[in-house]
Design a protein that fits this description.
Elements (H helix, E strand, L loop, with lengths): L5 E8 L7 E6 L27 E7 L4 E8 L2 E10 L8 E6 L4 E9 L10 E7 L3 E7 L9 E2 L5 E5 L10 E7 L2 E6 L4 E4 L12 E4 L21 E9 L2 E8 L3 E6 L4 E7 L3 E8 L8 E10 L6 E12 L3 E5 L4 E5 L4 E6 L3 E6 L3 E5 L9 E5 L1 H8 L7 H12 L7 H13 L7 H10 L6 H6 L2 H16 L3 H22 L2 E7 L4 E6 L3 E6 L2 H8 L8 H4 L5 H34 L6 H14 L8 H28 L2 H15 L10 E2 L4 H33 L8 H30 L10 H7 L6 H9 L7 H6 L3 E2 L6 H4 L4 H17 L8 H14 L3 H18 L11 H17 L5 H20 L3 H6 L18 H18 L3 H19 L10 H18 L3 H10 L3 H17 L17 H13 L9 H11 L3 H21 L6 H19 L7 E2 L23 H4 L2 E2 H19 L12 H11 L3 H11 L2 H20 L7 H5 L6 H8 L16 H12 L6 H12 L7 H8 L16 H10 ...
Parallel strand pairs: 1-28, 2-6, 2-10
Antiparallel strand pairs: 1-31, 3-4, 4-5, 5-6, 7-8, 8-9, 9-11, 12-13, 13-14, 14-15, 16-17, 17-18, 18-19, 20-21, 21-22, 22-23, 22-24, 25-26, 26-27, 27-28, 29-30, 30-31, 32-33, 34-35
Length: about 1450
């Protein structure tokens, strides 16, 4: 074949065929069928192994399906089987059969016509290298489980070697339904009726030989003329008969009739090395069978050739075959021939680097060849692999464009590369997985497949940034390396295997290693741009736009200039322009065009040129010179620029999307054909966009150099005002189409999935199940969603839709689809801006909110370019609808899990859009005309006559919409906006608003209150309450306000100065009190405390005290009901409440320092206990609670609290003696301070003395149990209570003990403290204590400090032993009474001695009249007791000594008294 082939088509990948899930099935093998050698070991290979990748496709007629099998040379044990149906969805899984031995490069799959069992729709024939043939009855894919064993009952296994003598190697194999044919190296051919009859039945095996007769085993008889080894075989069916075409290595071609097992044709070709044989479809009109043979010519073994023969046949009385003498030879200059298919009029030749076709003709002269562009070329171009400088140009242009913001260069470049990487047809899961693995990113392939487009971008971008950092040059180098590796892996994982040809529809496809594709014809613009500009004259549609042949010549020259111009920076510049439009642009598209034109004009990009940049500069300057000469030549040919501009205008009409009006009546379903249409749309839209872009650059450049090429002012004006806007419109339309074709759909949201599903035009059974899975997939783009809303003409359906149609059909259906996108169903849209609204409605209806927003934003930006000198608002309300729809899109995106910053921005943008929509020209009519089935939230009102009524209704609708999405910010703004319209709207008698002005304003203010409350704006919420004119609504809001403040922990705001509560104080108090009574007492914050603070803030002390006492009462009541009496925390809370109430009443004048009792009477004060002068209180005071009663309750509660700390439960019962029992209980638990507080609070007079005696007696008894010497207290101050004492008091061991409230820890120290403290209340307390101690232990040594208490007050020693109630005489009497004679004697002697040993100054006073008293009666008792002891013989010596001392001291004392008496008489006389 010559190199001057004409480009006739392009490959269109079937998106999604790279992500199949393979179900692996291990095929069992019988050990008896394993061939063995003579020595018993496994035999060697007797069949050709798989050394090259092989694949083929079997086309089923009914049902229509394509069965594709593949054998990889790296996995020769496995065979992959895939079923495709053009009219159905792409299957999710395929079958991978794992055989025990390597396979021959052969497989045959067909419809099961043997048993016609629906359970086994297909049959698969394979042959292993060991000579074992398998027949597998294939079930549906759904019947198999992953990693399962293939059912043995569905398998036929045949060892061909059992029927072959001497193990002659098998060189070729073929099959048809019910028959396997093998060829051997000795030239013999044998067929086996595998699966039809039993292997032992007669006729199971037949040898195809020249002699007639009975079939015999191979090698048992002579075959006459010997032929070469069988090189290749193929079975073809003619008129119901099956014939085997056999090619031998010596050039012999034979045809055998399988029905009669006889040879019907024999022909020999010499002079070459023959490789392969392909038989085409017979032509019934000419009675010929096309046949091609691949061979290598003897003169040049490296050069492959294909000879195309025609065999004529005549089926009369006997079958006659003859070879047509004409031979068509096709030279394959480069590349290896992989596959050949022959149809009725063409031969398709697949090489490893291209696909070519030739027409079948009888003319043996050289025939024109047609080539078809493969995907490798497209991927290389998209990934900037066609030229090593393309990626550098992107950086140079980007740096020049973003000269003022260098930080934007890196993310912008990365965005371009990422978009290119994820383009449909470029992105390949296995290739990306292999590339990531090379960077040590070992992400499972299934996880990688599950990632969304954004997830993939993040994964790749993180790899790039991690690899080399974030510097722009390093990023570029990293991207270049990554894309180069990815392209290598893409080619490796998409190696070409074979052809897919459907003769019934002339569809041609390609089977790759991990994908499948279909070929299509070229669009007219592609023939010009990618083919040859000389074909312009052959394009009827373009020629009709030109006036004469001269204009055709001008167009040809013009196209050459533009293409030459585009080759320099056009492709890279278009990528930058495209990215700037689809992303949030930092720089406008006009600035990009201007910058690129400047680069082309000046020949420089960035400062600081290096060697490469100098070369680029020279190249650009050369281009400028050549362009100048070409434009001069073009100008001379046309004689005027006006004519050239007219030609340009005519050509631009050729670029405008065609408007095709058809009668659409059939729904388009989601299937493989739809996928091909979508990708065809992308391919052509890309070419159209780039072509229009090239012309825009060219015209911009032309304007810049207009003076050099004689461009007049009028010509420049025409370019700028007519042609450039037309080009911008064309670019915008094709860019939008491209955007639809490559942008992945967003995942479906759960909340409104059912509504989307019900409105989608898809198949009722499979479509509904797969729709949710499709949305969000990278291969399911927006164009699929739009395509499913197209109604196609009925002529396109039927037979063609069930199969892959011919190449031109895809282009025709693509034109219909593009026409529908741009012009609508009937072609009635005047421009795409109005059509964009309909498309956005469709996208919104199917949950593609971000895509709809992007579409509307691009339309808005384009509209701003067109309307720069006039209003952008159309009179028909289209602008308002766009703003309204844009607001709905933004609002819907907020529900899709955006980040906080993004969410806030979307909300604010949505608010702005709705406000703009309501105020535009014709907004009322346009928006009210929208029907409910357009997919966006329905307005639900109509008939607004005035502008104010319209805005009131619209703002209320917007408010409800934001409220539905729980966006209080927007709802609040629209509620406030609606309030501004109420007064004016209500003036209109025909307004549709129900209710009065007060009701309407009240409702809106209530909404403002709710939204402000949700936003945490409590001041605004309170202002809304105050502003509400509806009293009932106001108080409802106030109650809600208090509840929310309470729940949010912000209730304290009521006690601050932030809220002006003028006129609402009582209402607030009522609501708080109502809430407090019905709230859990343990809830936080505590409402009673809040009411206390609230009243204190209002300087209402009594009410503050009242609420705190209510709080205390609630605590006591609920503690009793819930058995919380022992809870120290609750008792502490009661104490705090009572303390706060007491403090509050102290702020009130004493005459008014009282509060009312609780309504339920639940109070300690209603129970009986002693109070001072209780009977004298007036009846009114008895029903009130004053400070004294509160203090009494505080003391009792304190006692209960103290007891709870030591795990003792007590509750005041009000019975007689309860307080005495309480004091005793406190003493028993070492709570002495609290015990004495109770006594002093509730007892007076003799009762107090009695209780004090009881308490101190109890303490004294506890001291008796302490074995520590009482005198030790004087030295150390504190004693530790012994464990024995604790055992006696508590009755059991105590592990936790509260420290007594004294200055020490011993009972003696405690007794000393409290006796000294409270003896003033009762003078006999020391006597009671001493008597208690002596009664408990007569031998106890009384503490010195206790003895000293009896001697206190004896300042005048002349008084003897008299004094206060606790005097030495009392102690002396106790000593005598309890047998402490020694201590009694010593005490008496001490007192007598003290009396006698007065100072000289006191002698005069003693001789005056005085009353000195000694207990003489007790002294006599003492003497008597001493005598009794002596008489009885007890302590005789000691008693005599004491008696002598006592008598001697008494005699001296009496003498002194006598002298003093005589002196006193003398003085008185």
């Amino acid at each position: 074949m010559g190199t001057d082939s004409t480009l006739a088509g392009k490959e269109v990948p079937i998106i999604g065929t790279d992500v199949f899930r393979w179900i692996e099935l291990s095929v069992p093998s019988s050990s008896s069928n394993i061939p063995t050698a003579v020595d018993g070991t496994n035999a060697t290979t007797i069949a050709p192994p798989t050394v090259d990748d092989r694949a083929s496709c079997f086309v089923l007629e009914d049902p229509s399906a394509y069965l594709i099998w593949r054998i990889h040379k790296l996995q020769p044990h496995a065979l992959e089987l895939l079923e495709l149906n053009a009219s159905k969805e792409l299957p999710k899984a395929g079958l991978r059969f794992i055989f025990p031995y390597q396979l021959c490069p052969f497989a045959f799959v067909c419809k099961n016509e043997i048993s016609r069992n629906s359970r086994f729709p297909y049959l698969l024939y394979v042959l292993t290298v060991t000579g074992v043939a398998y027949l597998l009855k294939i079930r549906n894919v759904s019947a198999y489980a992953s990693s399962a064993l293939f059912p043995a009952e569905d398998l036929f296994e045949l060892n061909v070697c059992d029927y072959v003598s001497n193990h002659v190697p098998i060189t070729a194999v073929t099959a048809t339904a019910g028959c396997v044919v093998v060829g051997r190296s000795d030239g013999s051919v044998c067929c086996f009726r595998l699966g039809v009859i039993d292997t032992s039945a007669p006729g199971f095996v037949h040898e195809l030989r020249d002699e007639a007769g009975v079939s015999r085993l191979w090698g048992l008889m002579s075959r006459g003329k010997m032929v070469g080894a069988v090189q290749d075989m193929e079975i073809s069916e003619l008129h119901g008969k099956r014939f085997v075409f056999v090619l031998h290595s010596d050039g012999t071609l034979r045809i055998w009739d399988l029905s009669s097992h006889s040879r019907v044709f024999n022909h020999t070709v010499t002079g070459a090395t023959f490789r392969r044989l392909w038989v085409g479809q017979f032509d019934p009109d000419s009675s010929t069978i096309p046949l091609s043979i691949l061979y290598k010519h003897g003169l040049d073994e490296e050069l492959e050739m294909i000879s195309l023969h025609s065999i004529r046949y005549n089926f009369g009385e006997r079958n006659v075959f003859s070879m047509d003498p004409s031979v068509q030879n096709i030279t394959l200059e480069e590349g290896q021939c992989l596959d050949v298919k022959i149809t009725l009029d063409k031969i398709w030749i697949l090489k490893d680097d291209e696909l070519v076709s030739h027409m079948l003709t009888t003319n043996v002269e050289e025939v024109e060849a047609f080539s078809y562009a493969l995907q490798e070329e497209v991927v290389a171009d998209q990934l900037f692999q066609s030229s090593e400088h393309q990626a550098d140009e992107i950086l140079q242009i980007a740096c020049s464009i973003f000269s003022s913001s260098k930080e934007d260069v890196v993310p912008f470049i990365s965005s371009i590369f990422l978009r290119k990487l994820l383009l449909p047809g470029v992105h390949h899961n296995a290739a990306l997985h292999a590339t990531l693995a090379e960077y040590s990113r070992h992400l499972p392939e299934s996880d990688l497949q599950a990632l969304t487009a954004d997830g993939l971008k993040q994964e790749v971008l993180s790899l790039i940034e991690h690899e080399v950092g974030s510097e722009k040059l390093s990023i570029l180098h990293s991207w270049k390396c990554f894309l180069t590796r990815y392209f290598h892996n893409w080619c490796k994982n998409n190696a070409i295997y074979g052809l897919l040809v459907d003769s019934s529809t002339d569809a041609v496809g390609l089977i790759r290693k991990s994908s499948v594709s279909i070929f299509r014809s070229l669009e007219d613009i592609e023939r010009i741009v990618e083919g040859s500009s000389d074909e312009v004259g052959e394009l009827t549609g373009l020629v009709d736009l030109l006036d004469d042949d001269l204009e055709c010549e001008i167009l040809v020259e013009l196209l050459r200039c533009v293409m030459s111009f585009s080759q320099q920076l056009g492709k890279t510049a278009s990528s930058i322009f495209y990215e700037s439009v689809l992303t949030a642009p930092v720089i406008s598209s006009e600035d990009i065009v201007h910058c690129i034109v400047k680069i082309l004009e000046t020949g420089s990009c960035i400062s600081g040129p290096n060697e490469k940049e100098l070369i680029d500069h020279k190249s650009l300057r050369k281009l400028s010179a050549e362009m100048f000469l070409s434009l001069q030549s073009l100008y001379r040919k046309a004689s005027a620029w006006s004519r050239i501009l007219n030609v340009i205008q005519g050509f631009l009409k050729f670029l405008v999307p065609q408007k095709i009006i058809q009668n659409f009546d059939t729904e388009v379903s989601s299937n493989i054909n739809s996928s091909i249409i979508v990708h065809t749309t992308y391919q052509i839209s890309k070419v159209m966009f780039e072509s229009a872009w090239d012309f825009l650059l060219f015209l911009s450049y032309l304007v810049d150099i207009g003076g050099q090429v004689h461009l007049s002012h009028d010509d420049i004006t025409k370019i700028q005002l007519e042609i450039v806007p037309m080009l911008q419109e064309i670019i915008f339309e094709w860019l939008i189409i491209n955007f639809f074709a490559i942008t992945p759909s967003a995942p479906a949201t759960t909340e409104d999935f059912n509504s989307k599903l019900s409105s989608l035009h898809i198949d009722c059974n499979t479509g509904k199940q797969l729709w949710n899975e499709k949305l969000g997939r990278r291969d399911f783009t927006l164009a699929f969603i739009l395509l499913l809303n197209v109604r196609s003409s009925s002529t396109d359906h039927g037979h063609l839709l069930k199969r892959f149609p011919n190449m031109q059909s895809f282009v025709n259906r693509m034109r219909d689809f593009i026409s529908w996108i741009i012009w609508g169903q009937s072609g009635g849209s005047s421009n795409f801006l109005s059509r964009s609204i309909d498309l956005a409605f469709i996208l919104f209806k199917h949950g593609q909110y971000e895509a709809a927003e992007q579409l509307l934003m691009m339309a808005e930006a384009h509209l701003l370019k067109e309307k720069t000198s006039q209003s952008i608002q159309e009179s028909d309300g289209g602008w308002c609808i766009r703003q309204h729809l844009l607001g709905c899109c933004l609002l819907a995106q907020v529900q899709c899990g955006l980040h906080t910053t993004q969410k806030d921005n979307k909300v604010f943008d949505a608010i702005r859009c709705f406000f703009r929509s309501s105020s535009g020209n014709g907004a009322s009519e346009a928006l009210q005309s929208l029907s409910e089935d357009v997919g966006i939230p329905y307005l639900g009102f109509s008939g607004c006559a005035s502008t104010a009524a319209w805005k009131l209704q619209y703002y209320q609708w917007a408010m409800q919409l934001f409220e539905r999405y729980s966006i209080s910010e927007g709802a609040c703004q629209f509620a406030l906006a609606a309030l501004e319209q109420v007064d004016e709207a209500m003036k209109d008698e025909n307004n549709p608003v129900n209710g009065s002005i007060t009701t309407t304003r009240g409702r809106l203010w209530a909404n403002v209150f709710i939204f402000a409350l949700d936003l945490g704006r409590y001041y605004d919420a309170y202002c809304a309450i105050v502003s509400n004119p509806d009293e009932e609504s106001k108080y409802i809001c106030l109650r809600r306000f208090i509840i929310v403040l309470y729940e949010q922990g912000a209730i304290k705001i009521l006690c601050s100065n932030k809220l002006p509560l003028i006129g609402l104080v009582e209402k607030v108090e009522q609501e708080l009190a109502w809430k407090a009574e019905r709230s859990d007492i343990s809830a936080k914050p505590n409402l009673y405390k809040l009411l206390y603070a609230f009243q204190m803030h209002q300087h209402n002390w009594r009410r503050a005290a009242n609420y705190m006492y209510m709080y205390s009462t609630r605590l006591r009541t609920e503690a009793a009901s819930k058995d919380y009496q022992g809870s120290s925390l609750m008792l502490q809370e009661r104490l705090n409440a009572l303390s706060a109430a007491i403090n509050s009443l102290h702020l009130v004048h004493p005459a008014y320092a009282w509060i009312d009792p609780p309504a339920n009477g639940s109070s300690l004060l209603g129970e009986h206990y002693p109070t001072a002068d209780n009977d004298a209180e007036p009846e009114r005071w008895q029903s009130c609670i004053d400070v004294e009663k509160l203090e009494n309750e505080f003391v009792l509660t304190s006692a209960e609290y103290k007891l709870s700390l030591v795990n003792v439960k007590w509750t005041f019962s009000g019975k007689d003696g309860a307080l005495s029992d309480l004091a005793e209980l406190l003493v028993n638990n070492n709570l002495y301070d609290m015990a004495f507080t109770i006594l002093l609070r509730f007892f007076k007079g003799s009762a107090l003395k009695r209780e004090l005696e009881r308490v101190l007696s109890a303490i004294s008894l506890r001291c008796c149990l302490d074995k520590v010497e009482s005198t030790w207290v004087e030295e150390h101050g504190q004693l530790v209570t012994s464990s024995k004492l604790e055992m006696v008091v508590h009755g059991s061991p105590v592990t936790h003990h509260t420290t007594p409230q004294t200055d020490g820890s011993s009972c003696w120290a405690t007794l000393k403290i409290y006796l000294e403290k409270y003896k003033e209340f009762h003078g006999r307390l020391p006597v009671i204590v001493a008597e208690t101690l002596l009664r408990a232990d007569p031998q106890i040594e009384l503490p010195l400090w206790l003895v000293q208490l009896f001697k206190e007050g004896q300042k005048e020693r002349m008084s003897g032993m008299s004094g206060r109630e606790s005097n030495p005489a009392s102690l002396f009497q106790l000593y005598v009474s309890y047998g402490r004679y020694t201590e009694a004697t010593n005490l008496l002697l001490e007192c007598i001695q003290s009396f006698a040993s007065v100072r000289p100054a006191d002698i005069i006073r003693r001789k005056r009249s005085f009353a000195a008293w000694f207990p003489y009666t007790t002294i006599e008792r003492l003497l008597y007791q001493l005598e009794e002891l002596t008489r009885k013989g007890h302590m005789v010596e000691q008693c005599d000594k004491l008696k002598r001392m006592l008598l001697s001291s008494l005699q001296n004392h009496l003498k002194t008294l006598k002298v003093d008496s005589e002196d006193a008489i003398s003085v008185s006389s």
